[in-house]
Amino acid sequence: MKKISLVFITIYLLITGCETPGDKFTRFHVKETSLGTIKGHDLSNAFFINEQEGFASISKDTILKTTDGWKTFTKSLADTAALFDGIQFVNKNVGFVVDRNNYIFKTIDGGNSWEKLKINISGASLQDIKCLNQDTIFIAAGGDPKIKNGYVLKSVNGGQTWDTTRTMNLSHISFLDGSTGYASGPYGIIKTTDSGKTWDTISALRSDDILFLDENRGYFSDKRSLYQTIDGGRTWKLMKTIINPHWIMGEDFSKIECLNTINNKDLIFTLNARLIKVTSDQKWFQYEFTRPYYQLQMIGQNKGIVYGFENLILVDF
């Protein structure tokens, strides 16, 4: 009996010894408005044109459409061979979906019909898409972190033909304006100032998401770490590695996602069931949901939609 008690005491001490209070920040006000529910589905990717209209991937091969804020929805695109990832619309009619099997799907009628376009690259898969307009489109390609090479692809005719630049393995791409853009991945960050004609490496640090607010101030995330630059990416400073509260044992696989901005001033992103805001003077705040919502898309200067497990919520900051 004593041996059993000692075993339980040892286990308890091991667990509590690994426990951490984590990083908790001052709560900031968020107004939640529940939108629709898609029961039984983990929403992995979505794009919202506005509060009422949007598209969401409910599985690797099916995308739904709503026109009434997810009160009702219809199947817009399905392909049993697909691995859908990024979704982006230029306007209500023209949109694109990335298939990691190196296809993109294009609609010009608001998702009623889709054209499937093959992209010929080898040794990498399509990861992320950024549309500057309905004609000019960029795609980041990469994949397995063990693979060092990737691509930036550019189309100036709505995806009919592509110019391909071989570069490092990439997972995300974003643009500050029509000329200046950034792409990131497991081997660093690259930058263009001539609308994708040339790309230069500005960091060799591993990076997940990336966002620039202006030509000098930018951020990138690496798992639960957030980095900042104030000189256009020439140098980067680690701001914080966030420790999740009450993490018990093992590796914490959560990560910072969906870098966005409120009023082009404050940074906001998701981490598990939290929205975290970092002000321009580097004060940290949080808002915690009762259920985990991993993704955030801003649909206005101070308004966004969060989604992840079944539910979609409109958030006003």
Describe the protein's architecture and organization.
- The chain has 317 residues and is mainly beta.
- The protein contains one helix and 29 strands.
- The protein has one helix at residues 2-18, and strands at 26-27, 31-42, 45-48, 54-59, 62-66, 74-78, 84-89, 95-99, 103-107, 115-118, 125-131, 137-142, 149-155, 163-168, 172-175, 181-185, 188-192, 200-203, 210-212, 218-222, 225-229, 237-241, 257-262, 266-271, 274-278, 284-288, 295-300, 303-307, 309-316.
- The strands form seven sheets. Strands 1-26-25-24-23 form a five-stranded mixed sheet, with no helix packed on it. Strands 2-29-28-27 form a four-stranded antiparallel sheet, with no helix packed on it.
- Strand 13 (149-155) and strand 14 form a beta hairpin.
- The longest helix is centred in the N-terminal third of the chain and has 17 residues, at 2-18.
Task: Provide the fold topology.
Elements: H1 2-18, E1 26-27, E2 31-42, E3 45-48, E4 54-59, E5 62-66, E6 74-78, E7 84-89, E8 95-99, E9 103-107, E10 115-118, E11 125-131, E12 137-142, E13 149-155, E14 163-168, E15 172-175, E16 181-185, E17 188-192, E18 200-203, E19 210-212, E20 218-222, E21 225-229, E22 237-241, E23 257-262, E24 266-271, E25 274-278, E26 284-288, E27 295-300, E28 303-307, E29 309-316
Parallel strand pairs: 1-26
Antiparallel strand pairs: 2-29, 3-4, 4-5, 5-6, 7-8, 8-9, 9-10, 11-12, 12-13, 13-14, 15-16, 16-17, 17-18, 19-20, 20-21, 21-22, 23-24, 24-25, 25-26, 27-28, 28-29
